Amino acid sequence: MLGLIAGSGPLPFEVASAARDRGLQVAVAAIEDNADPALERAVAGPFAWLNAGELGKLVEFLRGAGAREVILAGAVSKRALLADPSRLRPDARALALLGRLAARGDDAILRAVADELEREGLRVVESTRYLAQRMTRRGVLCGPPLEPAARADLALGLRVVASLGEHDVGQACVVRQGTVLAVEALEGTDRMIRRAAEFGAGAVLVKAAKREQDMRFDVPVIGPATVEVAAEARLRAIGLEVGRTLVLEPERSSAAAERAGITIVGLGAEDA
Amino acid sequence: MLGLIAGSGPLPFEVASAARDRGLQVAVAAIEDNADPALERAVAGPFAWLNAGELGKLVEFLRGAGAREVILAGAVSKRALLADPSRLRPDARALALLGRLAARGDDAILRAVADELEREGLRVVESTRYLAQRMTRRGVLCGPPLEPAARADLALGLRVVASLGEHDVGQACVVRQGTVLAVEALEGTDRMIRRAAEFGAGAVLVKAAKREQDMRFDVPVIGPATVEVAAEARLRAIGLEVGRTLVLEPERSSAAAERAGITIVGLGAEDA
Asked: A247 pLDDT exceeds 90?
């Protein structure tokens, strides 16, 4: 039995389906206000809706379902929690955990949750464990070939996100003609793209993992929704770090990119 | 005769007034859509309104006024120019210059303009030349003493802007409890603060110069307007890099900070 702690977006669906394809049963703990309600109908095994603060109940549910390995997939919006802390209803176990957290970077919180689960004998594994063949490869994945100016912008973007990755900051930026238009922190990639769009068309988005990203958590992804936002923003390209990012619903994402004339490209260290 | 190329905000007023205090006459080239219209009444010497693209006319005006040294003070909104390039009316000289510019980082453009002026025998000097005693000093400048948590957030912010400074990106970020809430790129400090405010009160703003900031251009400043935005955002502190940033209208800025319970503090490398 695989335990799946499900945040927002399509990643939990893809993890559940990939695990099922391997013959695994999946017990899903869906995080309220974050996980897609459709998830409940999409999976067959044990299912529970939990508040992001119900750590004790989470451990109980996963152990009760007989899970040995656990995957965290999809984002849990820290933004919503920070803006309205009353939406977090921490149980005793979560309160004890929060008390021990000195820093509160995303990774720090997730790592602490993972440690708690591991202490209970639940092994937290990489969210990409069953999606290995899906990780971004180097080179143009879809869309028109890249011009040198776009390649130079992608290289600059890659260097910028690499600098930020040291500090547990967001993992994306938008660049055009050598100027960094916007850098993502806590607001999310879509909002960051929309902000950059105010400065006009033809920019590129770069998305990468943090330098020390713990691949058990919140792997950087794009999907059809991000591509649609990129199309509205009239971006010319989306660069994704090879091996550590993922395109969700690849057929739909590629089709949307082709329609908008957006190149999606996998970028390695040699492209920076 | 000192030539003053005036962008937005109070810095041109302060430079003009400090230069006058030293017995210098000042010829002001005010950049349309950017410089404060009140500047025309505030200065006594030669005065001209110029479009940001009128480089030839700028050289003519400054030379005609007998300027030998030139100061660039205040920001020229690249954002407005990028959003609506029709607002830039480049003359032949400006077009030739733009054609030669490969990258378009803020500094790259300003450096090219400075080079053009220098080629005409106009020496571009630091905008802070007459404001040396006003550069930020280390320690609390006004407001309540800092708690250790705020000091830790300021240190993180300082490290984040240091990383970004390598790439000619904006020079400010907002941090709270170890989480980077927002990073400035092209949108400007005030907008970045407002975005961070959505995540709640108690954060700190850090503002610093780029690592290789050419102090002839666009020195990072805060003034009463920034402090008011910080107050609305319920920030607890504003950290400014020592020696390379400036508080404009210091009495008004301090008064606004004291009223809002915001600490303004000068941060050195030892605070990172």
From this structure: yes
Kindly give, in sequence order, each residue whose CB lies less than 8 Å from that of residue A216, ignoring residues fewer than 6 positions away: A71, A72, A110, A114, A124, A125, A126, A127
Residue A47: predicted pLDDT: 97
Question: If we measure between CA atoms, which residue out of A223, A192, A191, A213 comes closest to residue A36?
Answer: A223
Q: Is the separation of the CB atoms in B45 and B26 below 8 Å?
A: yes
Would you call B178 and A83 a contact, using CB atoms and an 8 Å cutoff? Answer: no
| Interface contacts A/B by beta carbons within 8 Å | 109
- Torsion sign over Cα A103, A105, A110, A115: negative
Q: How far is CA A190 from the centre of its chain?
A: 12
Contact (Cβ atoms closer than 8 angstroms) between residue B167 and residue B213: no
Inter-chain residue contact B199 with A159, CB threshold 8 Å: no
Among chain A residues, the shortest Cα distance to B203 is held by A82
From chain A, pick out residues whose CB is under 8 angstroms from the CB of B174. Answer: 185
Q: Which of residues 41-100 of A touch B (CB under 8 A)?
A: 78-79, 82-83, 85
How does pLDDT run across B29-87, given as a tens digit for each residue?
998 888 999 999 998 899 999 987 788 899 999 999 999 999 988 877 665 565 566 66
DSSP one-letter code for B179:
E
Q: Which of A95, A78, A76 is nearest to A35 (CA)?
A: A76
Tell me the pTM.
Answer: 0.82
Number of helical (H) and strand (E) elements in chain B, helices listed first: 10, 13
pLDDT tier at B217, thresholds 50, 70, 90: confident
A71 vs A270: CA distance, rounded Å? 31
Contact between residue B235 and residue B262 where contact means Cβ atoms under 8 Å apart = yes
| Three-state secondary structure call for residue B107 | helix
Instruction: Tell me how far apart the alpha carbons of residues B80 and B129 are, in angstroms, rounded to a whole number.
Output: 28
Q: Which residues of A80-95 are buried (b: 16+ CB within 10 A; e: fewer)?
A: ebbeeeeebebbebbe
Do B105 and A167 make contact, defined as CB atoms within 8 angstroms? no
Q: Residue A103: which pLDDT band, with cuts at 50, 70 and 90?
A: very low
Cα(A101)–Cα(B178) distance, rounded to whole angstroms?
A: 10
Whether B167 sits inside 8 A of A156 (CB atoms) is yes
Helix B224-232, helix B250-260: angle, nearest 10? 10
If you measure CA to CA, which chain A residue comes closest to B79? A199
| Sheet with A2-6: strands ordered across | A47-50, A26-31, A2-6, A69-73, A123-124
CB B51 within 8 A of CB B88: yes
Distances (CA, A) of B210 to A3, A171, B13, B105, B246: 46, 21, 24, 12, 14
Contact A159, B170 (CB under 8 A): no
Q: Which of A168, A183, A185 sits opposite B181 (nearest CB)?
A: A185
